[in-house]
Amino acid sequence: MQTRVDPSTDIIYVNGSRLPKKLPPKVYLALNKPKGYICSSGEKEFKSVIDLFEDFFKGWDKKNPGIPKPRLFTVGRLDVATTGMLIVTNDGDFAQKLSHPSSMLKKEYIAVIDGVVKTQHLVNISKGTVIEGMHCTPDSVELMPRQPDLKRPRLRIVVHEGRNHEVRELVKNAGLEIHSLKRMRIGGFRLPSDLGLGKYVELKQSDLRAMGWKG
What keywords are annotated for this sequence in UniProt (predicted)? Predict the structure, then answer.
């Protein structure tokens, strides 16, 4: 049978170890994920994105004396080759809300393409493809204006399904090859343009509301 407890007043033991009464505050961070990092742990050949928060944990005790360090985890995932916005938190309710398909949160990606992009490619992407048994179609896809310093064409693709490798599968099914992929926006919150790769920023309440969080 389940037993409801209050960690702030009850004495709780897990596997013989007593849980601290003081709980860490809720933490909400936006990371500009570099290539080569994974969103989980246990795979020795890749580093975890949580390794990028080493300085955050080092300064925790000084800023929060007597309060245990938060256990950070990612909200959803980006594959090892994809860069850009990744939300990291210790708030399970927040993570579940943002990750659940019912949230219908739009996510914007910039895909740099190897080769030439033709009109039919855009049509094919717009038609969607089957991913994990579901037919997924993007909210929008457009060829971005050419820039003199960029040799490869770029596509702006917005999706809301959140299926595994969704953008990569949409582009592949259209007959194109992705050179690089970056997530730029979740909901109404856009990755800050001055946030360097591997760097993170603490989210404000207005940022959380822009992603549909009302907690």
Answer: Isomerase
